[in-house]
Write a structure and sequence with these properties.
By secondary structure, the chain is an alpha+beta fold. The chain has two domains: 121 residues, Alpha-Beta Plaits, CATH 3.30.70; 87 residues. It has a five-stranded antiparallel sheet with strand order 4-5-1-10-6, with helices on both faces. It has a three-stranded antiparallel sheet with strand order 3-2-9, with no helix packed on it. The longest helix has 69 residues. It starts with 19 loop residues before the first strand and ends with a helix.
Length: 237
Amino acid sequence: MQTNQYVMNKLELEEGSWSSLYVRVLPTDLVVDGVLINNEETLKDLIENKLNLGKVERIDFSERKNHKGMTNRSAYIHFFMWDNMAGSNMRDMIENYGSARVCGYYNSEGQYQAFMGQWHNGASFNRFIEFKKNLNPVSKTTNEEMNKDQLISKCNHYETRVKELFNKVNNFIDGERKMLISLIQTNKNNEHTKMEVEEKYHEGQRVTHVSELEDTRMTLEELEVEDTRMDLEEVEL
């Protein structure tokens, strides 16, 4: 994958200017630099790092059946910043002609890279994306003003976000729980070791004390000799 050397500069828009693009049909087999463009991450990378149109806030998708029974996927691309060159040219083309068809891009070495299809058979080489102005962006409408596809897309976006946050919270809780359990176990082990040392220390003192007592204890013969000595001392007195 080519490294993007292009440095974006913000395009200043008038207040109230449109800031979203609409792709009515996103090719299901669109391949750019060997990557299948089939989700928010890959489409965002194409727009930001290949086409250099600007910085994307989010992308909403919707699906519908065409007259042949096949599923077409649409994309609503919301920007928080437009580039003052590539983004400005795209906006001018859409304002003047109603849409802008893109069939490839120029890489960092100035070479043109045409879009391709995943299966590379005949017409699949001629892939393109047609961008239009998004006249009813989800981010600037109320639920009552949205159409069915936009409402479904918004709900799907929130569901995905909730799952991401749920997993993030659970991972955090699990990590904190494991750390707390490890800390408690470490404290228990340290306390157990301390008790063993103290117990051995006290047992050593007690044995030493008993040993000292046993060393000073007299036998019966020694007591008799001591009594005789005391009697002799009394006689002498």
